[in-house]
Amino acid sequence: MAAIRHLIVTGLVQGVGYRAFVADEAAAGGLEGWVRNRRDGTVEALVAGAPEAVDRLIAACRRGPWGARVDGVDAQEGRADDLALRRSGELFSVLATE
Question: For this structure, is 37 an active site residue?
Fold first, then answer.
């Protein structure tokens, strides 16, 4: 059974390659979903896949890439409907700022 998690990441997470980091981690874990910056300075992501892979991605998000300072990761249950925000034909999308 697939897990779906909606993440909000706070800290110094914009302008440091955080979205690309999440996309790379998602690809390595075979996950689906998307990531985007938000105007409030946070990063938002939706990830779906094997529960163990989702947990690994959340753990990676708590560390972040070099140059980031992650203050917190709020991980809530996600909705499958939100996967529709991905760009057509992509398993995982880096979306524009919302």
Answer: yes
pTM of the model: 0.96
pLDDT digits (tens, 9 = 90+) for 29-48: 999 999 999 999 999 999 99
Position 22 in a domain: yes
As for how many domains the chain has, the answer is 1
The verdict on whether 79 is a catalytic residue reads: no
Q: For position 33, which CATH number holds?
A: 3.30.70.100
Domain that holds residue 40: 6-81
The two structure tokens encoding residue 77? 């249950």
CA distances from residue 79 to 48, 70, 93, 97 in whole angstroms, order as listed: 9, 24, 16, 20
Average pLDDT for 21-27: 98
Give me the catalytic one of 19, 38, 56, 79: 19
Active-site pick, 36, 37, 39, 63: 37
